[in-house]
Design brief:
alpha/beta; GMP Synthetase, Chain A, domain 3; eight-stranded mixed β-sheet; 21 helices; globular; binds adenosine-5'-triphosphate; binds magnesium ion
Length: 664
C-alpha cells in the first residue's frame, strides 16, 4: 500500500481551477476534431429531417437475420415497437459478427483482479464460452422467455452469463453485486426467475465475502427458482443443494461447444433491470432487443468517437447498472471495442489504482460518474499525478449533474486540458445516452449535458403552463419515441403509464428531472423534479446551489435540500463534506455563504450547514436527497433498499437531533 502523497502544489491547482471557472465554453480541440468520426454539425439537421431514416441507418450497422418491415410502430402509444418484423440476436452482434470478420483475436476485455491478477479475453474466447454456457443453460431447462437472475461481481463470467442468456432469448435480470442477498431474493421473486447465476465469493478490498452462502440463507423456499449456477471464483466454501445447485465450470465442461444464436423478434425482451432508487422504490425496467442495440451501438460509437482498432475504452461503472449493461457490455461489444474491466473499488489497493490501470492498459477513453470524480478531488491530485495519463483522449461522465469544479478538475488533472468531456444524460429507462455533446462537434459548458443526440427530441416545459420553453427552467420531457426506450415496467404496466405518461399524455415522456435551457439551447439537468427548492418565490435547483457551495476551495461535496421555513416558504439546508481532513468551523460557514451569495445571490445562501463525513448515497453512488429531507424533517426514512451505507444516515440523524436540541 502506498503512503499518502504530499499535497504540495494544491494551492496552485486551486488557482488554476478558479481561473477556469470563468471560462464559459470549451471548443473541441482542433486535433481531436480533425480525427473525429463526426465533425459536421449537419448530422443534427439531417436526423431532424428524417429521424426514422437516421435510426434505420444506425440499425443497418447491426446484423439482422431478417430485416424489419417497419421502423416504428406507433399505433398504440406509449407502447411503441421498433423494427417490427425484424429478427436479430444480441450475442450474435456482440461476438459472432466480429469473429466471422476475422477479428476473433482482438481483446474484448483486459480484466484486472483486485490483487493484480490479469486475464485478456478475446472475442473468440468469449464466443466459445458463451456458446457452452448457453447450451448448459438449455440443458437446465432454460429456454426462450425464461428469466435468469445474475448476481455476479465484476469478473468476465458476468459478461459471459449475460450474453449466454441473450443467445437463447432468456431475459436476464442482473442484480448489482453490492446489493444484499435479500435484494436479490426480492428481485428474483418479482421477476419469477427460473435460474440464478452467482458466485461462491467476491473480492472486497483484500478480503473475500461469501456470496452463495448468503444467497442460500434467503433463497431457500423460492419455488420458481429451479437452478442456481455457482461460479467458483474465489474458492469460498459453500454448500450445494442436490437437484438445484450446479457448478458453472462443470456444466460448461459438459456442454456442447456449438450453440447457434437464436433469431429473435426485434421486440423480444433482452433484460429487466431495476433503477437506482434515488427518488422512490426501484422500478423494473424492461428493454427489448433490436431498438436497444441500435441505440446503444450508435451512441457508443459517436459519443465516445470510438475507433475500435486504436482505442482502449474503459467504462468504470459496475455491470449491475444500466451504464454497465449499455456501455460495458452491449454497446462496446457491438462495436468491437477493446475494454478494460476492473474487479475492485477505486481505492484498493490504494487511491491511485484507477490511474495505474489507465497507464497499464493505455486507456484512451474513460467513462465514469461524478461521484467518483468528487471522491478523487477529495483524495487529492497527487494520486493521478504519479501516473502517465497521456494515452487519454476523451473523458465522459454519467449519473448525476456534475458540478463545474469537479468538471474542471477532471478536465485539468485527468485530461491534461486536452480531452473533450462528454457529460451524458440518460436513464435506465432511456437505455442509451439521450443528451450529450458530440466530442468533435459540440462546444461544452461545464455542468451542461448540452444537446439531444441526433434523432432525439427533448424539451423543457413550463411547470405551470406545460408549454415548451425557449429559455428557462422547467420539466424535462422527451417528445419523440427513440429505439432504446423502455417498453414497460416489468409486471407494473399501470405504474409505467402513470409514472411517465400521465402528465402530458402518451406521446410525451416525462423524465422526472428538472432542467434549464439556456440562450444557446443548451440543456442543464439540475436534479429531480422533487429536488427543486422554493425560497421566497425563487425557484432554485439543488444542483445550482450545490455547485456554488462546492466552488469554495475547502469543500469536496455538498447536498442541498429545502426545508419548511416560516419566513421564506422554504429555506436551504446544506449537508457539506470538506476536502481531506479539514474541519468545519464558523469561518468556513461564512466563506461558503459568501461564495453562494456571489455566484447566485444572497437569497440562495444556506440557512443551515451541517458537516458530514459522507452523504447518503445509492449503491451506484448517487446522493439520496429524499433521505436527507426525511432526516431534516425528523421523519421515518423512506425506502432504503438501495442505500449504500446505513451508518451514514444513522450518524446524520444523531447530528441533526443534536443540532435541533441545541437550537431549542
Ligand atoms: P430512481 O429512478 O429509482 O429514482 P435513478 O433515477 O437514480 O433512480 P437511474 O436510471 O440510474 O436511476 O438514473 C437516471 C437519473 O440519473 C436521471 O434521471 C438523472 O436524474 C440522473 N442523471 C444521469 N445522468 C446525468 C447527467 N449527465 N446529468 C445530470 N443528471 C444525470
Ligand atoms: Mg429515475
Amino acid at each position: 500500500m502506498a503512503t499518502e502523497p504530499q499535497t504540495a502544489g494544491s494551492e496552485q491547482l486551486e488557482r488554476e481551477l478558479a481561473e477556469l471557472l470563468a471560462v464559459e465554453r470549451f471548443e473541441p480541440p482542433r486535433e481531436f476534431r480533425e480525427q473525429a468520426l463526426l465533425k459536421d454539425p449537419a448530422i443534427y439537421a439531417e436526423a431532424e429531417r428524417d429521424p426514422l431514416g437516421f435510426w434505420s441507418a444506425q440499425a443497418e450497422q447491426l446484423h439482422w437475420f431478417r430485416r424489419w418491415d417497419r421502423v416504428l410502430d406507433d399505433s398504440d402509444p406509449p407502447f411503441y415497437k421498433w423494427f417490427t418484423g425484424g429478427t436479430i440476436n444480441a450475442s450474435y452482434n456482440c461476438l459472432d459478427r466480429h469473429v466471422e470478420a476475422g477479428r476473433g483475436d482482438r481483446v474484448a476485455f483486459h480484466w484486472r483482479g483486485e490483487e493484480g491478477e490479469e486475464r485478456d479475453i478475446t472475442y473468440a474466447q468469449l464466443l466459445a464460452d458463451v456458446q457452452r454456457l448457453a447450451n448448459a443453460l438449455k440443458a437446465l431447462g432454460i429456454g426462450k422467455g425464461d428469466v435468469v437472475g445474475i448476481y455476479v461481481p465484476m469478473i468476465p463470467e458476468v459478461v459471459v452469463s449475460m450474453l449466454a442468456c441473450a443467445r437463447i432469448g432468456a431475459p436476464h435480470n442482473v442484480v448489482f453485486g453490492g446489493f444484499s442477498a435479500e435484494a436479490v431474493r426480492e428481485r428474483m421473486e418479482f421477476s419469477q426467475a427460473k435460474a440464478l447465476i452467482t458466485v461462491d465469493g467476491a473480492a472486497r478490498k483484500g478480503k473475500t465475502a461469501p456470496v452463495k452462502e448468503r444467497v442460500d440463507e434467503v433463497m431457500g423456499d423460492l419455488e420458481t427458482l429451479e437452478a442456481i449456477v455457482v461460479i467458483r471464483s474465489k474458492g469460498t466454501p459453500c454448500s450445494m443443494r442436490e437437484g438445484r445447485d450446479v457448478y458453472y465450470d462443470e456444466i460448461v465442461a459438459a456442454a456442447d461447444p456449438d450453440c447457434p444464436a437464436e433469431p429473435l423478434d426485434a421486440e423480444h425482451p433482452l433484460y429487466i433491470l431495476y433503477t437506482s432508487g434515488s427518488t422512490a422504490k426501484p422500478k423494473g425496467i424492461l428493454h427489448t432487443t433490436g431498438g436497444y442495440l441500435t441505440g446503444v451501438a450508435a451512441t457508443h460509437r459517436y459519443v465516445f468517437d470510438l475507433k475500435p482498432d486504436a482505442d482502449t475504452y474503459w467504462c468504470a461503472a459496475d455491470v449491475g447498472w444500466v451504464t454497465g449493461h449499455s456501455y460495458i457490455v452491449y454497446g462496446p461489444l457491438c462495436n468491437g471495442a477493446t475494454s478494460v474491466m476492473w474487479e475492485g473499488a477505486p481505492d484498493y489497493p490504494d487511491r491511485g489504482i484507477w490511474w495505474a490501470l489507465v497507464e497499464r492498459y493505455g486507456v484512451s477513453i474513460l467513462y465514469c460518474a461524478p461521484t467518483a470524480i468528487r471522491a478523487c478531488v477529495k483524495w487529492g491530485a497527487e494520486w493521478p499525478r504519479r501516473h502517465d495519463l497521456s494515452s487519454l483522449r476523451l473523458l465522459g461522465t454519467v449519473g448525476e449533474p456534475i458540478n463545474p469544479k469537479a468538471w474542471l478538475w477532471y478536465h485539468k488533472v485527468i485530461g491534461g486540458g486536452r480531452c473533450p468531456i462528454v457529460d451524458t444524460w440518460w436513464q435506465t429507462e432511456t437505455g442509451a445516452i439521450m443528451i450529450t455533446p458530440l466530442p468533435g462537434i459540440t462546444a461544452t459548458k461545464p455542468g451542461s449535458a448540452t444537446q439531444p443526440f441526433p434523432g432525439v427530441r427533448a424539451e423543457v416545459r413550463d411547470e405551470s403552463t406545460g408549454q415548451p420553453m425557449q429559455e428557462g427552467q422547467g420539466l424535462l420531457v422527451l417528445t419523440r419515441p427513440w429505439p432504446s426506450m423502455l417498453r414497460t415496467l416489468y409486471r407494473e404496466e399501470e405504474r409505467f403509464v402513470e409514472t411517465y405518461f400521465a402528465r402530458f399524455g402518451p406521446e410525451t415522456y416525462l423524465v422526472g428531472d428538472a432542467a434549464r435551457v439556456d440562450k444557446d439551447g443548451y440543456v442543464w439537468v439540475i436534479g429531480r423534479i422533487d429536488d427543486v427548492v422554493n425560497v421566497s418565490g425563487h425557484r432554485l435547483s439543488t444542483a445550482e446551489v450545490e455547485s456554488a457551495i462546492v466552488a469554495h476551495a475547502d469543500v469536496a461535496e455538498a447536498a442541498v435540500i429545502g426545508q419548511h421555513d416560516e419566513d421564506t416558504g422554504q429555506a436551504i439546508v446544506a449537508f457539506v463534506t470538506l476536502q481531506g481532513e479539514l474541519e468545519g468551523d464558523d469561518s468556513v460557514v461564512e466563506g461558503i455563504r459568501a461564495t453562494v451569495a456571489e455566484r447566485i445571490g444572497k437569497f440562495a445562501r444556506p440557512k443551515r450547514i451541517i458537516w458530514t463525513d459522507d452523504l447518503p448515497k445509492t449503491r451506484s453512488g448517487k446522493i439520496m436527497r429524499r433521505l436527507l429531507r426525511d432526516i431534516a424533517e425528523g421523519r421515518e426514512l423512506g425506502d432504503v433498499t438501495t442505500l449504500r451505507d446505513p451508518a451514514v444516515t444513522a450518524k446524520l440523524k444523531e447530528r441533526v437531533a443534536e443540532l435541533q436540541a441545541a437550537e431549542g
